[in-house]
Design goal:
This protein has 150 residues and is of the alpha/beta class. Helices cover 43% and strands 25% of the residues. InterPro entries: Flavoprotein-like_sf (IPR029039), FMN_Rdtase-like_dom (IPR005025).
Length: 150
């Protein structure tokens, strides 16, 4: 069964709301035959990443960059997964209270290096996520999970 791995750093209520919407989309009953795993960015291992067939990444934008937790996750699995995960689908979501450009650039840079294929537009939220942004997170989860359906 294909596996979708959600790697997230969820330290705030806004990030929690976005994470829950992503999970809800990824686990929608219409998406069949896809196992969804959730790992906190500080707990994910290279083995988790190697065992997955696609990825969703979630991070706050801290001081204009991805969270230290997500950066640590990338540092942990980048080289062990470099040649083995090329071409796998992914998507990402970010939350910021100020600029998110550096965080977006950082995530794109690392995933480009890994050779992952972005299959959905990122969801970038500034401030409190509203109904529309929560729906976009749901759609992001559903889209990436649907890419893995048999």
């Amino acid at each position: 069964m294909p596996r979708l791995l959600i790697i997230h750093h969820t330290p705030s209520p806004h990030m929690q709301a976005m994470f829950e919407a992503v999970v809800s989309g990824a686990t929608d009953p219409e998406i069949e035959g896809v196992e969804v795993e959730r790992r906190a960015a500080l707990a994910v291992t290279a083995s988790d990443v190697l065992a997955a067939d696609g990825y969703l990444l979630g991070s706050p934008a801290n001081l204009g960059y991805m969270s230290g937790a997500l950066k640590h996750a990338f540092d942990t699995f980048y080289y062990p997964c470099l040649d083995s995960t090329r071409g796998r689908p992914f998507g990402f979501y970010l939350h910021g209270n100020e600029g998110t450009e550096g965080a977006e650039r950082g995530v794109r840079s690392v995933t480009t290096g890994l050779g992952w294929e972005q299959v959905a537009a990122p969801v970038i939220v500034m401030g409190a996520p509203g109904k529309e942004e929560i729906q976009q997170c749901w759609e992001l989860g559903a889209t990436v999970a649907a890419q893995l359906m048999g």
